[in-house]
Specification:
- This protein is α+β, with helices and mostly antiparallel strands.
- It folds into 4 domains: 97 residues; 97 residues, no CATH class; 119 residues, no CATH class; 98 residues, no CATH class.
- 43% of the residues lie in helices and 8% in strands.
- Strand 8 and strand 9 form a beta hairpin.
- Helix 15 runs antiparallel to helix 17.
- The termini are far apart.
- The relative contact order is 0.06.
Length: 538
């Protein structure tokens, strides 16, 4: 057909507006990194935390399934190394991927807090943060950030001479000393100053392993070299901090960081990487200062009383003598744990004899404690390290479990005997009035039951009132009613919570189910547990 429909004489279609004005966005994603116009990195920080939280939820679900799902072939005692490897594969990369681009130290600190909380929740331990990181072979993010910056500087400086990257590198080299500390170029310069000062001059020779490596492996070899430097710097910092005051970190360094054996920060402890044994979790908790239920020095907070200093955390089984309840005392000297220690002596002596080590019985208490916690003795040859992990770690893990069962069971037995003796003797003794705290007096007994009905407006009469509450283990504790409970679903057993209270002794809050039925109307010092009464300031 001639002419065609699109010929110039054909009528031109009417114009239709199909475009829209460009919109200026406040943030955008570039290669997975979320940026904002002023490069504050706040959106990037939130994105990393969101991804890490989602991955942590996935790991937590898998961990729960491996522990309790009977259809799985895995069991609790072999799941700890697997959970650690799963966490490193799913959660840890989100914290490390864009770490070198965060120039604000507060952002790195926030990431570090979330990383530590996620790791401790996955491993189910409340140990010291630094101890947990060392045991699992995960360095702090600040150390890793410096390593990434130094490695990135090596990559830029050793790019092909004709590449745009190398040309940009040569352009800002003369200006690096004039830049602020928040710029990427300046931070790379500072990182190399801290980790590898000898290579601050780009013309300096690389380490021997890097020179002998193949061209495509040179950057990987230099990264391994920087890992050794990072480990040395971080261990120096740990020793400086641990020597400031007695505490959990100082004890951990004294027992587990032996200077006679070189350690690499990026490798987990041998008992987590070279073997799988029963009760590895028990051993991890003891090593990381997380056994708050039976080792007194591990209790790092106060429940209803002020936190005791490290030197005053005495062994409850050796009273009235004031003996520090640390690992050495609990494992080697406490009479309560002697049976568990005697059961372990012969198997441990056989392991020492198998590996041609000095007799186990001739070790001093400190050396015995280190061996009982799975640390290789100084005389152990490096070739026998795997054999030590295979033979000794199962014995040490079982000992950690046995000693916990013995000590925790003995504590419960002492509490039951004490409560029975008190109840029998109090029936024949005279009435002992309750003495209020200093500058307080016993208040009048409330008579209006509406005050204690949850979510009732009359409960406002108790807001701001002081009271005494008797706990089963800690006795009378002073509290302050701060507000009413607004959530009707909160309960304690079958009792509905009506108030939120603050305990000034340790600055902690707790839900309360106060009522007239358990009110101590006689102000009796020996009233049953979970009774209470109001007090007023003088």
């Amino acid at each position: 057909m001639y002419p065609a429909q699109f010929h110039i004489f054909h009528s031109f279609p009417e114009h239709a507006q199909r475009s829209a004005p460009l919109k200026e966005v406040t943030e955008f994603d570039y290669l997975g990194l979320r940026l904002d116009p002023f490069l504050t990195m706040n959106p990037a920080l939130q994105l990393v935390l969101d991804k890490a939280n989602k991955s942590h939820a996935l790991v937590a679900a898998v961990s729960y399934s491996l522990r309790y799902d009977k259809s799985k072939s895995d069991t609790t005692h072999v799941s700890l190394p697997r959970m650690l490897n799963l966490w490193k594969a799913c959660v840890l990369p989100h914290f490390l991927l864009y770490l070198r681009y965060f120039h604000n130290d507060k952002h790195v600190d926030k990431l570090q807090v979330n990383l530590t909380q996620s790791l401790k929740a996955t491993l189910r331990t409340s140990g010291h943060e630094t101890a947990v990181l060392i045991e699992t072979g995960i360095p702090p993010l600040e150390v890793t950030r410096k390593l990434q910056l130094a490695q990135f500087r090596y990559r830029l400086s050793h790019s092909p001479p004709t590449s745009l990257t190398f040309r940009m590198w040569n352009l800002w080299q003369p200006l690096v000393h004039r830049m602020t500390d928040t710029t990427l170029e300046r931070r790379m310069h500072i990182a190399v100053t801290h980790l590898d000062k000898e290579r601050l001059d780009i013309q300096a020779a690389m380490p021997t392993p890097v020179q002998h490596a193949k061209p495509h492996n040179k950057e990987r070899s230099y990264k391994k070299f920087l890992q050794g430097k990072s480990s040395e710097r971080w261990f120096d910092w740990i020793h400086v901090v641990s020597n400031r005051a007695p505490g959990r970190l100082r004890t951990y360094v004294h027992l587990h960081l032996d200077n006679t054996r070189k350690m690499l920060l990026y490798k987990p402890a041998p008992y987590l990487s070279m073997c799988t044994a029963a009760y590895q979790l028990e051993l991890l908790r003891v090593r990381t200062q997380g056994c708050i239920d039976f080792i007194p020095t591990h209790l790092y907070y106060g429940r209803f009383t002020a936190r005791a200093s490290y030197a005053q955390r005495y062994c409850p089984h050796c009273q009235p003598q004031n003996i520090l309840g640390d690992e050495i005392h609990v494992m080697c000297h406490c009479p309560t744990s002697l049976d568990a220690m005697n059961e372990l002596t012969k198997p441990m002596a056989d392991v020492f004899r198998l590996l041609d080590l000095p007799p186990f019985r001739k070790l001093d208490p400190t050396q015995k404690t280190r061996a009982l916690l799975g640390n290789p003795p100084p005389a152990l040859l490096r070739k026998d390290l795997k054999q030590w992990a295979k033979e000794a770690v199962p014995i040490c893990a079982e000992f950690a479990r046995n000693i916990r069962h013995v000590l925790v069971g003995n504590q419960r037995h002492l509490i039951q005997i004490t409560s029975d003796d008190d109840s029998e003797s109090s029936s024949d003794d005279d009435f002992i009035p309750l003495t209020p705290p200093t500058k307080f007096k016993i208040a009048d007994t409330p008579t209006d039951g509406l005050w204690f009905v949850p979510q009732h407006p009359a409960g406002q009469n108790l807001i701001g009132r002081h009271f005494l509450y008797r706990w089963p283990k800690h006795g009378w504790c002073q509290g302050l009613i701060t507000k009413s409970n607004t959530d009707p679903s909160l309960t304690i057993g079958k009792l509905k919570i009506n108030f939120i209270a603050l305990y000034p002794s340790d600055n902690s809050t707790s839900e309360c189910a106060l009522s007239l039925q358990n009110y101590n109307t006689l102000a009796d010092h020996d009233s049953p547990p979970h009774t209470w009464l109001l007090i007023d300031p003088l």
